[in-house]
Amino acid sequence: MSGASFSRREFMAASAAGVMLSRGALGANDRIQLGLIGTGERMGSHLAELAKLKKSHNVTVTAVCDVWKPNLARASERVKKDHGKKPFETARFGELLKRKDVDAVIIATPDFAHTPIMIEALKAGKDVYVEKPMSQTVEEATAALDLARKKNLVVQVGTQYRSEGRQKAARDFIASGRLGHVSRISAANCFNHARWARDFADCKEKDVDWEAYLFNRPKVDFDPKLLRRWHLYKMCCNGIAGLWMVHLVDQAHMIMNASYPDAAVALGNIYVWKDGREHTDLFHALLDYPEGFLFEWCMNLTNAAGTHYTLHGQHGTLDLLTLQYGDEGGAGAKFGQGILQPPPDENHMANWLDCLRSRQRPNADIEFGHQHSVASIMAAAALESGQRQRYDREKRVMYPG
C-alpha cells in the first residue's frame, strides 16, 4: 500500500517476489486519482467502467483534457455525475500532467498522440493506461518501454483480450501439444461500410484548440475531418494495421508465447470507399515468426463475410472465436472434437487499478504493447513502402530487406 514504510528486509522480499514498490502516496484515503486525456467515444467506455469500479477500487477522476470543447464538456459533466465533483478541465495535456491530484492517466487520443503523451506522463511520474496501438514508431515504443522500466511505473495497454479467458484457454491448449506444431494462424475482420467516416458538421474551429491537437504533427490549417475522421488519414495514424490488427496479432503473441516477427509483407488498396480516405479499405498482411509459424491477417471494409480466427496445427485446427477444436486437417494422431472451457474473464481496467497498488505488471503490460506495436508498424511500413520489413531483436530496429 502506498505511503507505508518498508524495512530493508521487506524491500528485499518484495523485490524477490517480483513486486515493484509504489512510487509514492496516492490521494486521500489511498484513493486513486485519475486524469483523462482524450475524452471521445473510447473514453466514454472507460468512464462507464470507472463508475462501476469507483467504490470497489476507491478510484475517482480529478482532471479531464480534450482539445474539442463539446467532448471536454460532456466528459466533465459525466465525471461530476458519477464521482460527485467537477474535475479540472484543460485542452493542454501538459497542464494535467503537472497536477499533484493526478496519480495516473488514461490516454485515449487519436493514435499519433498515444506514445508521445505517454512518454511525457512517465517523465512526470504518472502511471498510464494507454489505448492501442501503443505506438506508431519503433523508436518511441522503445523509449516508452525503457522509461517505464527505469521509473518502475505501471503501464496497461488497451489490448483487453489479454484479460479474457478465451485466449488463456487457447494458450494452454496449444501448450499441451494436442494440436501438434502450429505453423499457421489465419484471422480476418470483415465489415461492409465506410468505417470511421464520422459526421463532422458540428466541429467548428472556434471550439477546437487546433494548436494543441497538432502538437507533434505538421502545422496545417484547421480541417474538421482531421479531428473527427482522423482514422482515415496518414498524418494521424498508420491505417488498418494499427487500428485493428494489433488486437489480433497480440492474441497470437499471447497464445503462441511469441514476441516479435522476423519479417512482414502486406498488400492493400482503396477499392470501394473513395471518400477522401488515405488508408486502404482492404488490407492483407503476412508475418513470419521465429517460433515457427506464419500469421496472416486481413481486414475488409467492402464485404461483411468471412470473419474468422483459426490456428492450424499438424494434428488439427482450433477456432479461437468458438473455442471448438478437432482433428480436421490433421495427419496422424486423432483426438476427436470438443470445445474448450475458458476461465472467467477479468476486468481489464480493474486489473490496471489493482496493479497501481500492488506495483505488479498488468495483463497487457507495456512490454506486450511494444511487441504488438512493432508487428503493426512492420505491416504498415511494408504496405507503404512495397518492401518486406524485418526486425532485429537485439538492436531493436526495423529495416527493409
Jot down its keywords.
401 residues; alpha/beta; Rossmann fold; Dihydrodipicolinate Reductase, domain 2; 2 domains; 10-stranded mixed sheet; 6-stranded parallel sheet; 12 helices; 16 strands; 33% helix; globular
Q: What this model shows, in words?
A:
The structure is a single chain. This protein is of the alpha/beta class. It has two domains: 8-161 and 350-365, NAD(P)-binding Rossmann-like Domain (Rossmann fold); 165-345 and 373-400, Dihydrodipicolinate Reductase, domain 2 (2-Layer Sandwich), CATH 3.30.360. The chain contains twelve helices and 16 strands. The model is unreliable at 1-22 (pLDDT under 50).
Which spans have pLDDT < 50 for at least 5 consecutive residues?
1-22
Please indicate the percent range of residues in DSSP E strands (runs of 2 or more).
15-25%
Distance between the termini: 50 Å
User: What Rg is obtained from the alpha carbons, in whole angstroms?
Assistant: 22 Å
> What is the CATH C-level name of the largest domain?
Alpha Beta
CATH topology of the largest domain: Dihydrodipicolinate Reductase, domain 2
Number of continuous helical runs: 12
Number of strands: 16
What's the quaternary structure here?
A: single chain
The largest β sheet comes out as: 10 strands, mixed
State the secondary-structure class: alpha/beta
Give, in spatial order, the strands making up the sheet with the most strands. 14-13-12-11-7-10-9-8-15-16
String of helices and strands: HEHEHEHEHEHEHEHHHEEEEEEEHHEE
Helix content: 25-40%
On the 0 to 100 scale, the average pLDDT is 92
Shape: globular
Can you name the CATH architecture of the largest domain?
2-Layer Sandwich
Number of domains: 2
CATH superfamily caption of the largest domain: Dihydrodipicolinate Reductase, domain 2
